[in-house]
Structure formats: C-alpha cells, structure tokens
Design brief:
Rossmann fold, about 50% helix, Helicase, Ruva Protein, domain 3, three-stranded mixed sheet, 4 domains, GMP Synthetase, Chain A, domain 3, alpha/beta, 21 helices, single chain
Amino acid sequence: MLIKLWKNYGKTNFSFLFFIFPQDCFKINLRKQTKVGEEMQNYDELWTNVLNVIQSKVPDISFNSWFAETKLKSIEGITMNIEADSVFTSDYLNQYYYDFIHEIVFAITGENYNLNFTTKKNVEESPEINNNLNIVDKQYKKINSNLNEKYTFENFVIGDSNRFAQTAALAVAEQPGKIYNPLFIYGKSGLGKTHLMHAIGNYIESHTNKTVLYVTSEEFISDFIGINRKDIKDENDNNNDIIDHFKEKYRNIDILMIDDIQFLSGAAKSQQEFFHTFTTLYDSNKQIIISSDKSPDDLKYLEDRLLTRFRWGLTVNIDPPDFELRCKILKAKMTGHEVARLVNNDVIEYIASNCENDVRHLEGAITRLYAYAAMMGPKEINLEFAVEALKDYLGKSIYITNDIQRIQKAVADHYKITVEDLKSKKRTANINYPRQIAIYLCRMTTEETIVKIGLEFGNRDHSTVLHAYEKISTELKTNMELKETLEEIKNKIVN
C-alpha cells in the first residue's frame, strides 16, 4: 500500500504531497554494506532519490542553486553527512531547508537520520544569518515596481566571477527581510548588478504578495526634491505634500532596491532622507538591496552613517567574466536568434577573446554581427565573416599571420628545433616547453585571438593556449633566466 505524506513547512512556505512504497520494498539499508564501492554506490542511489523528490517540490532556480551540487558523503550511525559546494550553501540549507530535507529522507529510508551539512571547499566562513522569521501578513497593494521582466535568475549566466553574488541574491529573494539585510552588490558597470536586482524583484513578485520598488539613485533624488511630480495633480501642493507623497511611496513597501547608490554623492539632503528611509524600512524588517560601482569602503563621498548601515548586511562583489563565462554568455545571448545556427564555435571564441571588460560589450558585438549578417545573407557565419563584421567594433584583425610565423621561427631557431615541431602533436619536453614560450609571446606581442593562435599551433584548443600562457606568466615571476631568454627571442623577432 502506498503511504501518503503531507507536510506544510512554515519556514519555507512549502506544501507538498508525495508517495512512497512500503519500507520493505524501497528502503535502502546502507549500514549492512561492507564494501566501500558498494556503499558509495548506494549513497549515490539514495541521494539521487532524495534529489528527485526535492526537484519536484521547489522552483528550478532554487534546486540548481542549493541542491544540485550536494552529495551524500557518508552515514555514521544515525547521522547523515551531506556535502555542499560551499560554506554559504551548507549554512543556508541547515538554516532554512533542514526540516524539508529531513522529512524527505525519512520518507524514503524509514530512518530518522540527523543531517550534518559539510563542505569540501576551504572558504571563509559565511556571514551569520539573522534568524528572525517574523512574517508580516498584509493586504497586497499594487504599485509600479519598475521591474524589467526579462531579467530573471533563469537567464542569468553563472560563472566563478558572479556565483557568490547570484547565490546571495537568490537567498534574499527566498527570504526577503530575514537574512542579508541590506544586500550590497558592487562591481564595474555592465557586469550584471542590475540584472540580479531585477531578478530578485521578479522572483519575489512571482512567489509572494510583497510590494517591490526598484529605482536608480537619480530617480530617488528626483522624487525627493519634487522635480518629478507626475503623481501629484494638485497645483496647490506645498513642499510638505511632496514629502508626504515621497514617504508614502518609499516607506510603505516591502522591498526597496536602489541602483548605483554612488550617485547620491554630493546630494546632502537626499542622503539624509535616504538614511531615514533606510532606517524605517530596516526597523520594520523590510528588505533593502543596493548596488554600486564601488564597495562601501571606497564610497568616500557618502555619509559615514550610511556607509555603516551598508555594512550591516552582506556585501558581494561581481568581477569581470573570465573567458569561459564570456563564451557561455555569448551562447546564451544567441539562443533563439534565427541566425544563431549559422555561427560556429570559432566565432564565439573570437568575440570572447576580444571583449574582456563587460557583458554589454559582448551584447554589442552580437548585435553588430547579426545586423551585418542580415545585410549580407551569409550561408555560414565563420571566423572570416566575423572579423569583417566586427573590425570597426573590436578594432582588431586576427589575420596578421606574419607576426605568429616570425615568433614561431625565432623560438624554433633559438631552441634548435623546427616550426613543424612547434605545430606537431609531440609533447616531449624539448618541444613542449618552446611551444609554450611561443604561445606566450603570441599572446603578449600580437593582437591575435586565442582561437587564431591555437589554429597556428596545430589546431590546439583555447584551454591549451591559456594553460601555456599562464604557465610561462607564472614562471616569469621567479625565473630571471627565462626573462633573459624571452628578451633575446624578442630581439630576433624585431630584427
């Protein structure tokens, strides 16, 4: 007979129903295993079953962020040791999903295991999570949130440079006003700060009845000083009326998001009002999310009392995307476009190699490439086509092969090998080391892309090129003999 289980979880507001087979049919008795291999196989089998149930009960973005990378490492007596990918994740699971996971484990195994969340990574301890779970029931009040619906967690491309910021943002979206308040996101322009803020807002609006407001700091200032008075119709309104209207808009909400807070610098009265707005919302357990191009420590022209409050919550940084993430972003941005099928991988790597600063630069390259394709109607968007389409935008050409050939010949002559050796599949030390040096020089002294360099060295992939470059770069920090060798080779190239 099937066993019907129903549980309403107050912490996570999840209600779920699932069925299991009788324990004798479905239960996995791990403690009877004697062989390590068999034991680990059963751990994997059990945890796969647990994850399958979890995945059916939580949103995809929550599953992918919190659960997908977890593993069942061992069972010791009545304790189940579950490994997460970071201290941040393990703490969050223990704080907000313990009962949820525990009930699923019990339903599958029939055992009342204690759950111990661990991590495999040696990372800094995560900030303490505020466990104040007061939930304020309120009547839904519709306001203009100013959110852009196209920015979601689902289409935010994750890499090493933004993973922590994305995870923190999702945690805030799931528990607004309860943890990491305020959330302060900083990084250079075009890296995804605004995307994450809108993603938080859109997630909250789709899962709760909480009111959300997103504004830029310029909009905040404009509203405060009464320049933008589109919502005020009475010509007899005085300044007090404007202030009252402002306070009603900014203080009777659940989530306030202020983008580019650095532009409050120099606006003394607006800073003062924002301080009072911040305090009012914070004291009411309302969520505040702030973005800036600098960390709170580097915002020199904002009031100290504001900066102090910015540090109360969690501060996260978004770094420029690395090569791998830039490729992922390009592929994601191209998905669904009618000419995307014409673009080969060399083009992706070419653009990623030459757009290193921000996501907007990548998006601009895609837009230009598609516009050129629409005019020219190519059967294939290959490397040659992309170079021509983007020559004005990128300001580089990858077809100056003479530079690579001169470097190859100079390196080959120095080490008394042939250029063919450098291009070959040979991996002996006397060939591989000069090849790495030649690749390094190509990256340092030419404007060639990783793709083109790889092609000129026997059609090697970008990871091989990057490895060679990084290896020689690291060695140069301590190897003076290598520095002299490179200078000697450079002189031969010039001459």
